Amino acid sequence: MTNPAPTPADPESLVIIGSGPAAWTAAIYAARAQLNPLVYEGEPGREMIPGGQLMYTTDIENFPGFPEGIDGQEIMARMRTQAERFGTRIITENITKVDLSSRPFTLTPSYGPPAKARTVIVATGARAIWLNVPNEQRLAQAGLGVSACAVCDGALPIFRQKVLAVVGGGDSAMEEATYLTKFASEVVIIHRRDSFRASKVMVDRALSNPKIRVEWNTEVTEVLGIDEITGVRLRNIETGAVSDLAVGGLFIAIGHTPNTAFLDGQLETSPKGYIMTPTPWRTETNVAGVFAAGDVIDDYYRQAVTSAGTGCMAALDAERWLAHHDDGPLQSPVLETAESSIGRAGE
Fold it and tell me: What residues act catalytically?
């Protein structure tokens, strides 16, 4: 559903920006705490759509509670419906600009009027960096053998006992290649250079695995296949020679970009752009009353279940903050640990 944005004279208690597992989990908890949350779920675009990266995943087999697995779009629709059930209001627009310099905070959406908020949860996620070669996105979005997450998808039956390719040269690529050896007949790492930038321990672990081999000085120029991936077209950087490699799966491991540009540097971020949460096991940012959850704070795990967990934490932190603060100083204090009305088991 779509609701009118709040007026400046009527600030929201909590606005959640995003629509992945972290955002919807935060909305469920906040709505049950009667915070009447407003969610800006985003709008369809070339790189991201409401629901986040799981909208491009056809089979999820590692989310607890679904022993037979579940389609990515279905689980996101269920999360959204559950949030709505408890009264969450949803606007299908992006937040393009924020002003966190004064209270209440001001959030500017794509088309509607600005919204005012006492607290904000940023759960905008991160998007995978793709190769942007022909046929890559078509096969990735249809779940036909191209993925940006080996841990998410590598154990699926479609990849078992097949030759799988991993593109990348960092620690993530080494980790994903090593992980895939549990299921593949062979794993081929495709790398543009003649050495990896990954740490020595990760490189040694990968190269010592008999199932892994490397295509050095090589780039993917096209993904092959119609109803499913059948191979990749390769070009040798040094010689220009073109060849085809038959594979049953392609995993892109060249990094992620957190969706934080709209913040315009108002929240502290890591060198890679991920929002920092200074207090361990808390989701509050360097601006008091602003919290962050999901992949936008996580460059390590990047799983749906961990995102959902931090979404729960952010809602609890926001609820506690609202219970114990009015419009206090903008500098973030250490969060208090008072009991939350939504944190007790069974409620």
Answer: 149, 152-153
